[in-house]
Design a protein that fits this description.
Strand content: 25-35%
Number of strands: 30
Strand order of the largest sheet: 1-2-3-5-4
Structural class: alpha+beta
Number of helices: 11
Shape: elongated
Largest sheet: 5 strands, mixed, barrel
């Protein structure tokens, strides 16, 4: 169609323009001429001719009334540069109306050579590739989540699908030619997802079934280490993985599997176990050589002394390597005869070479018991020679217990100083009353028990027993002494005499009247005067009386005589209840002044018979101890029941 407006804009008249056109066409009708124009649309791929190259732009004629523009960088560096007259396929990206005239189709065209190539490549691939097909391509670059693989078009290989076990860095696959299986094709988005792992698993499944039918326990196979963990290594046997546990790598001790194998290393292993149901295979490396434990009893007989290297130290002992694959345990109790060890590291460290003695072998459990102290003489074998009974030794108080103190007389040799052997006279509740930790002191050896490894020591035995001569000569019955109340019990009061020496003031000897509670009469720390009733060196006891302090010697003598006192010997009679420390009558006459107008004592005595006196006193006598020892210290059973505070 002729644009009449354009013709009017020329200097020629319409008739002249028509004539010029007819002359140019040489009689041919304009409708019969192909003007080179074609209908084009956005996103259409067309064939174009390069007109010229201007800087970063390439002008291309696509048969439209206006040229299209392509950026120069759409030609790859390794491709032939654009030249005038060259042909190129391009994609129409945009058409811009320059004049804004509805009937004027002249405008700028935006073209893309690269997109056209991609679309054509995609269409070509779609003609030949389908899901589940195996394709081959080159991994070109790493993107988020995986790799791009060029199979003619870029397809996506997720990182999880690169291999059976995800590699540490998928970038190592860039530039490698790999085979994959097509998982999914999205034509709308022009996206293809592929998997190398699925292809490998499919191939391995076939090989695994065949390999499982061929494998047998005891066979040796070559494989490639595919992965290493803390507990072992996985070895690819050519279709199935087997586990090479760390304990089956070496007869000796290894800290980590990487000490024996490396990833991608080819090794020969032995088949130890096959689980066909779970498709699991246990492999061994050390089983290729004989176990060193087969001849262990011949090489290391019990009682032999050998040299080894400490390879590990635990809280309960140290492991010593005798040779590669042979280790024994030195228990902490077998490290020293005498030294007290809190942790084996006090004596040995890793890599120390030490002498040990073989104590026992358990071949089935592959265990050897070793001892360090057995390489030295046991000091307890000669302790009786060094410390015979009755000898005096010096030592240091190492520890205190409720029952005594442990005295270290040499390193590792302790003796027990019992509380009962600390003082002849003093009642000791706890050793800290006499000694303290770290104190140096002398003791006498009382006995040595080599079998039980015990030494009994005494502190009081350094001096003479005061109960043998000193105390009996110093304290006599009838003697008056003064001392503090040291302790009050339900059966009486203890009175301090000297240097820990105590006497027992029985409750019946506290006062003339009956005492229910000794604390109502005396208090702890109070100084009181008492009379000594009895001194017993054998029982190491002194009996005291407070109520007899004022008694005259005659009254004491009368109290000691059996039977009632004659009435004629007293001017008046006062009936008293009480018990003497020796045998005697329960009723003792007490002389008292006769008040004016009082009845004559003889008359009183005459009117009261002996039977009547016994009847009157019967209730009171029943409350008193029936044996003389009840009033003194001759009651060890009562004293012991009183508690731990009673003196020995």
């Amino acid at each position: 169609m002729v644009n009449r407006n354009l013709i009017r804009g020329l200097d020629l008249s319409e008739e002249d323009w028509q004539q010029e056109l007819n002359d140019a066409l040489e009689g041919t009708s304009p409708e019969e001429i192909d003007w080179g124009t074609q209908e084009i649309a956005i996103n259409q791929i067309v064939d174009g001719e390069i007109l010229r190259v201007e800087g970063d732009f390439v002008l291309v004629d696509v048969g439209y009334k206006s040229e299209g523009v392509i950026l120069r960088n759409e030609w790859e560096d390794d491709a032939a540069p654009p030249e005038r007259g060259g042909r190129v396929k391009v994609l129409i990206e945009d058409i811009e109306d320059v004049y804004g005239l509805v009937d004027d189709s002249r405008g700028m065209i935006t073209l893309s050579k690269r997109k056209a190539e991609k679309i054509e490549a995609w269409m070509k691939v779609m003609e030949t590739v389908h899901e589940e097909d195996v394709v081959t391509g080159i991994a070109t670059r790493k993107i988020k989540g995986g790799l791009l693989v060029d199979i003619g078009v870029n397809v996506f290989l997720p990182a999880s699908q690169v291999d059976i076990r995800r590699p540490a860095d998928i970038g190592d696959y860039i530039g490698r030619t790999i085979q994959c299986i097509v998982l999914k094709i999205d034509e709308a988005r022009r996206n293809i997802v592929v998997s190398r792992r699925a292809l490998i698993e499919s191939e391995r499944a076939e090989k695994k079934a065949q390999l499982l039918s061929e494998l047998e326990v005891g066979q040796r196979r070559r494989g490639v280490v595919k992965n290493i963990a803390e507990f072992g290594a996985f070895v690819d046997l050519g279709g199935i993985d087997g586990l090479l546990h760390i304990t089956d790598m070496s007869w000796g001790r290894i800290a980590h599997p990487s000490e024996m194998v490396a990833i991608d290393q080819e090794i020969e292993v032995q088949i130890l176990h096959i689980d066909h149901e779970k498709e699991k295979i246990a492999l061994g490396l050390k089983q290729k050589t004989a176990s060193p434990w087969e001849q262990v009893e011949e090489k290391y007989p019990v009682g032999s002394q050998v040299r080894g290297t400490v390879v590990n130290v635990m809280s309960y002992g140290a492991f010593v390597k005798l040779e590669e694959g042979i280790e024994g345990l030195v228990h902490i109790s077998e490290m020293s005869w005498t030294r007290r060890i809190s942790h084996p590291s006090e004596l040995v460290q890793i890599d120390d070479e030490i002498e040990v003695v073989v104590l026992g072998i358990n071949k089935e459990k592959q265990e050897i018991s070793l001892g360090m102290k057995q390489t030295q003489e046991n000091p307890w074998d000669v302790v009786a020679e060094h410390y015979p009974p009755d000898s005096v030794v010096k030592g240091t108080v190492r520890n205190l217990t409720n029952y005594g103190a442990f005295i270290e007389i040499e390193e590792g040799i302790d003796g027990l100083l019992h509380v009962s052997d600390m003082s002849w006279t003093r009642k000791i509740s706890h050793p800290n009353e006499i000694v303290e930790k770290g104190q140096e002191l002398e003791c006498r050896v009382l006995s040595v028990d080599q079998d039980r490894r015990r030494i009994a020591l005494g502190l009081k035995q350094l001096g003479e027993d005061p109960w043998a001569r000193d105390i009996p000569s110093k304290y006599q019955p009838g003697q008056l002494v003064t001392g503090p109340v040291t302790k009050i019990t339900n059966f009486g009061v203890f009175v301090g005499l000297e240097n820990g020496l105590e006497g027992l003031l029985h409750i019946s000897e506290l006062a003339d009247h009956k005492v229910e509670n000794p604390e109502e009469v005396v208090k702890v720390g109070e100084q009181i005067e008492v009379k000594i009733l009895r001194v017993d060196p054998d029982e190491r006891k002194i009996g005291l009386s407070r109520k007899r302090v004022e008694w005259a010697e005659e009254a004491e003598a009368e109290a000691a005589e059996p039977g009632p006192a004659p009435a004629s010997e007293t001017s008046t009679v006062e009936l008293k209840g009480g018990v003497g420390y020796s045998s005697g009558p329960l009723i003792q006459p007490m002389p008292t002044p006769v008040a004016e107008g009082a009845v004559e004592p003889e008359a009183v005595v005459e009117e009261i018979s002996d039977a009547e006196v016994e009847e009157i006193l019967e209730p009171e006598v029943a409350d008193l101890p029936q044996e003389p020892e009840a009033a003194g210290v001759d009651q060890p059973e009562e004293s012991e029941k009183a508690g731990p505070d009673q003196p020995a």
